[in-house]
Write a structure and sequence with these properties.
Elements (H helix, E strand, L loop, with lengths): L2 E9 L2 E6 L8 E5 L6 H16 L6 H7 L8 E6 L4 E5 L2 E3 L8 E4 L37 H17 L5 H20 L7 E7 L8 E6 L2 E4 L5 H16 L7 E5 L7 H15 L5 E6 L2 H9 L3 E5 L9 E3 L19 H4 L4 E6 L3 H4 L7 E6 L2 H10 L3 E4 L6 H10 L3 E3 L5 H5 L2 H10 L6 H19 L3 H5 L14 H4 L5 H15 L3 H5 L19 H4 L3 H16 L2
Parallel strand pairs: 2-14, 3-12, 3-13, 7-11, 11-12, 15-16, 15-17, 17-18
Antiparallel strand pairs: 1-2, 1-4, 4-5, 5-6, 8-9, 9-10
Length: 556
């Protein structure tokens, strides 16, 4: 089973959350976000529908109210799978057509057992096949580890006595899979290689003897480090139960606890590729760098970003582009990006423009979003970063002076990124690729006509608008003519008059460079119903951005 769409209404943190367009090929779905951002609430939704499918937890009022954001409003969880099966659970409806009771399998973050305590077999009378020992809520402690140990040791005894399996067969079946995984996760260096050497059931009043070797030392499970116990706990659990979940959605919360970055990467790789069956899907919540890096590299992984969202409002989330460096900010602040990407050019850009620049596919280049033009400018001015800002209402000479004094700050040659996306040449290429008609001359005529209708609404405010620009505001420029360009001074008035001359011209390339295409000309039919991300994939757009960045790079 693989989820492609999820819809939660009045559920826990979420007023109305949609997660959409998860590729059917995604074996791993990684939820990233700061603590408290809502990741575990998604897993609560899986536990909620799991209880409905299994029908083994009574639908008490307290049970329902735990999941409701607003007690007096209905709660709803809707899940669509890759085979088009839809599961809906709400106050008044339960729709789960022919879904097996093993559709979901989850582990909470509260699962580590610091020491073994059971001293006899049969101490737990749990139906593992029905997952009867699972926590009811995702804030509860997961106590399944000793049940898993008991199941494995009991099965080993049955294999030996009833099936007559040899020691070698038992070793290959139960010990080798664990040791192969431990080597893949922790490494094979002498002195640090961790190996499981025996699993002896609890007998004669003693706890189970799960013993390991590291270097020349042998020691019991109880004496593993917290990180080692975290890994062993998970592997024993999967060894015990994964045969039951060959076609399931597995959801594990914070399995990166107590692990360093390299081991985080190795663990997620090992579990995803070697322990989760091909027909199953693994959902993991984390904010660790190692997990993010593995998901970024994997072709069969999707990353969903929950960070910095207001879930009191409806939100629709999609898998993040793998080339978006902002996914690393959950684990690493922007200030550390140069250290993380030492051999790459990092450009800070305005807000969502990063999505369009990323399509340009410039080798060894990353685009990182900042809130606005001023934030990008201050990043470049106070650090060794590069940046790209909109032209806005800058004259040609303004751009020359800015380039001279801030050589790492790239200024677009048109008003905004939208001027590139909706440029006649770019639209012409797009429409030709779609095998649709496009009259470029008519489009330019419509742009000119619209420009003449609206220009007088913003020409009178040009001088005031330019006072918002941050350029040359540093103390070292105090009182000179450059700083006065963006103050209520004669220099600003002169440059504003130049912008007005651009706008009063009917020559397309003269006025278009300062025409606010982000806010105006939006009604023209040629730009309707076209995703801007598609317009950013044309050869024309890529060529213009590549040429502009190359021009600045050559001057550094």
């Amino acid at each position: 089973m693989k989820i492609t769409h999820l819809h939660l209404v009045n559920f826990k943190r979420f007023t109305n959350l949609r997660i959409e367009n998860i590729p059917e090929t995604s074996k791993l779905v990684l939820l990233i976000g700061a603590n408290g951002s809502g990741k575990s609430s998604v897993f609560d939704a899986f536990a909620f529908v799991d209880a409905a499918i299994k029908r083994d937890i009574g639908p008490t009022e307290d049970f329902w109210n735990y999941f409701k954001k607003k007690i007096n409003e209905p709660v709803s969880v809707s899940i669509q799978f890759a085979d088009q099966t839809t599961l809906i659970v709400s106050d008044d409806r339960f729709l789960a057509p022919n879904l097996p009771k093993t559709t979901f399998y989850g582990r909470t973050s509260f699962r580590q057992i610091p020491r073994l305590t059971r001293k006899v077999l049969g101490q737990s009378n749990i139906n593992i096949e029905q997952d009867a020992d699972r926590p009811i809520f995702f804030i509860d402690r997961d106590i399944r580890f000793e049940n898993d140990v008991e199941k494995i040791t009991a099965t080993i005894l049955k294999d030996f006595f009833r099936l007559g399996q040899s020691n070698e067969q038992i070793w290959q079946k139960y010990i080798n899979p664990i040791n192969n995984a431990l080597e893949n996760i922790f490494g094979s260096a002498n002195g640090t290689k961790l190996q499981l050497i025996e699993i002896i059931p609890p007998l004669e009043g003693k706890v189970a003897q799960i013993n390991f070797r590291k270097g020349d030392s042998e020691f019991h499970y109880n004496y593993l480090s917290a990180g080692e116990k975290e890994v062993v706990n998970l592997l024993i659990n999967l060894l015990s139960r994964r045969s039951l979940y060959q076609d399931s959605v597995c959801f594990f919360d914070e399995i990166d606890l107590h692990l360093n970055t390299k081991i985080q990467f190795n663990l997620l790789k090992e579990i995803t590729e070697n322990w989760i069956p091909e027909n199953s899907q693994l959902w993991v919540a984390s904010h660790s760098l190692g997990f993010i890096e593995y998901a970024k590299q994997s072709e069969n992984a999707s990353i969903i970003d929950f960070d910095d969202l207001d879930f009191d409002l409806p939100q629709t989330l999609f898998p993040e582009p793998k080339d978006n460096p902002e996914i690393y900010e959950i684990a690493v602040s922007k200030e550390f990006l140069p250290a993380l990407f030492q051999h790459m050019d990092i450009y800070f850009v305005e807000n969502k423009d990063k999505d369009y620049y990323a399509n340009v596919e410039i080798p060894k280049t990353l685009f990182v979003a900042e809130n606005n033009r001023n934030s990008v400018y201050h990043k470049v001015r106070t650090n060794q970063y590069k940046g790209i800002v909109d032209r806005d209402f800058l004259t040609d000479d303004d751009i020359i002076q800015i380039k001279k004094h801030y050589p790492r700050l790239v200024v677009l040659r048109y008003y905004s990124i939208e001027n590139y996306l909706y440029h006649p040449d770019n639209l012409e290429e797009y429409y030709q690729a779609q095998h649709k008609e496009f009259d470029k001359s008519q489009y330019i005529a419509q742009l000119t006509e619209t420009k003449n209708q609206v220009k007088d609404t913003f020409i009178p405010t040009l001088m005031l608008k330019r006072t918002e620009y941050p350029y040359f505001s540093e103390p070292e420029y105090n009182g000179n003519s450059l700083q006065n360009r963006f103050k209520n001074k004669n220099e600003n008035q002169e440059q504003s008059a130049e912008i007005a001359r651009y706008l009063n011209s009917n020559d397309f390339e003269t006025y278009y460079k300062v025409l606010p295409m982000k806010s105006y000309c939006t009604h023209l039919p040629q730009r309707q119903n076209i995703p801007k991300t598609e317009l950013a994939k044309t050869s024309w757009f890529k060529g213009k951005i590549q040429k502009l960045l190359a021009e600045y790079s050559n001057n550094l």
